[in-house]
């Protein structure tokens, strides 16, 4: 009996020492297995009961069971306490301030040139035109010859045109689509052609080596000058506002006869004169005219039966005028401070 008491006392104090050293819940779980598990000292004592006399057995059994309960209780209490400590530490560590403002994301939007093109396309599709695309890389014929440019016309000069060493060139205007369309479709033709153009010019605030145009062409029987005027007036009032005033000036392009330039009353000063209109009160917006009979012939269209008008406008120029932008290079520099100013 005395020796069992000694053993139990010894076990208890050993256990209590190790309990003090358990810092993590994991240590405690290990401790519990070590003392109370199937291979532990308590179980060993239980097994040794079989060596006792039948009289001693109930008493010894109770003493061992009491110890078992006592240690179990210690383990469970400490485990609960350590788990709570660990949970508190984790909560403190993983704390999130839900009142912090979120990270700002930059929402992408369309480039101002794309926006202007889409707007123009929208208006003209609403007026019955459909979109026809043509190649950026084309032959001299489609860009010049088929458009009634004389072989010695200065625009063909190396100064203005980018020639590729394959004998092709980068189109200098979207008018090449006129010729492609006439060759591919029979009248009535009513198309617009948005796209990129290239000119071999010095890059400056006012000119760039590439820019965008929207071309338009309408060919049918009995198309007259009056149709050109009314369509341009309608288009420009839809683009710039109901009250816009237009002015038609004679001009020259080889592929139209007669040729025109179309001005609108300055949207900034309303005609009183300002820096944007260079104090003329007018803004030059587009080139236009009646399709030259030679061009119709190149497109296999009989000029005796059909007539048409065409126009072309520069999108960078228009966007600059509408927004008082003073440098065309801003469109291609991708400076967010510039781009973010557009809706
Ligand atoms: N292609 C001409 C230009 O680049 C514009 C234009 C198109 C003029 C159609 C008349 C008719 O300036």
Features:
343 residues; alpha+beta; BirA Bifunctional Protein, domain 2; 2 domains; 7-stranded mixed sheet; two-stranded antiparallel ribbon; 11 helices; 41% helix; rod-shaped; binds phenylalanine
Helix content: 40-55%
SSE-based structural type: alpha+beta
Q: Which percent band covers the strand fraction?
A: 15-25%
Number of domains: 2
Please explain how this structure is put together:
This protein has 343 residues and is an alpha+beta fold. It has helices at residues 2-21, 25-36, 41-48, 56-93, 112-126, 140-143, 176-184, 225-240, 293-298, 315-323, 336-339, and strands at residues 130-131, 137-138, 169-170, 189-198, 210-220, 246-251, 256-265, 282-291, 307-314. Helix 1 packs parallel to helix 4 and helix 2 runs antiparallel to helix 4. The longest helix has 38 residues, at 56-93. The mean pLDDT is 92. Bound molecules: phenylalanine.
């Amino acid at each position: 009996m005395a020796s069992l008491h000694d053993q139990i006392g010894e076990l208890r104090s050993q256990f209590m020492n190790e309990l003090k050293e358990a810092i993590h819940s994991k240590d405690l779980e290990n401790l519990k297995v070590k003392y109370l598990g199937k291979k532990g000292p308590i179980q060993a004592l239980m097994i040794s009961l079989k060596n006792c006399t039948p009289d001693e057995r109930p008493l010894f059994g109770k003493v061992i069971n009491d110890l078992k309960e006592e240690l179990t209780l210690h383990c469970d209490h400490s485990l609960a306490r350590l788990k709570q400590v660990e949970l508190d530490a984790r909560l403190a560590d993983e704390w999130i301030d839900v009142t912090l403002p979120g990270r700002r994301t930059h929402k992408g939007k369309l480039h101002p040139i794309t926006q202007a093109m889409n707007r123009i396309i929208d208006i003209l599709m609403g007026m019955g035109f459909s979109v026809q695309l043509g190649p950026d890389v084309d032959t001299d014929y489609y860009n010049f010859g088929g458009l009634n440019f004389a072989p010695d016309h200065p625009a063909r000069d190396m100064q203005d045109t980018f020639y590729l060493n394959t004998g092709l060139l980068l189109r200098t205007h979207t008018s090449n689509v006129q010729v492609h369309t006439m060759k591919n479709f029979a009248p009535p033709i009513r198309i617009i052609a948005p796209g990129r153009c290239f000119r071999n010019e010095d890059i400056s605030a006012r000119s760039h080596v590439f820019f965008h145009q929207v071309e338009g062409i309408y060919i049918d029987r009995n198309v007259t000058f009056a149709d050109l005027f009314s369509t341009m007036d309608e288009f420009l009032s839809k683009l710039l506002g109901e009250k816009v005033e237009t002015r038609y000036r004679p001009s020259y392009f080889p592929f139209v006869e007669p040729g025109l330039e179309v001005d609108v009353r300055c949207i900034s000063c309303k005609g009183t004169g300002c820096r944007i209109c260079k104090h003329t009160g007018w803004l030059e917006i587009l080139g236009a005219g009646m399709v030259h009979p030679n061009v119709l012939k190149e497109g296999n269209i009989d000029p005796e039966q059909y007539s048409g008008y065409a126009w072309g406008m520069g999108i960078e120029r228009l966007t600059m005028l509408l927004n008082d932008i003073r440098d065309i290079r801003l469109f291609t520099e991708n400076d967010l401070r510039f781009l973010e100013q557009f809706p």
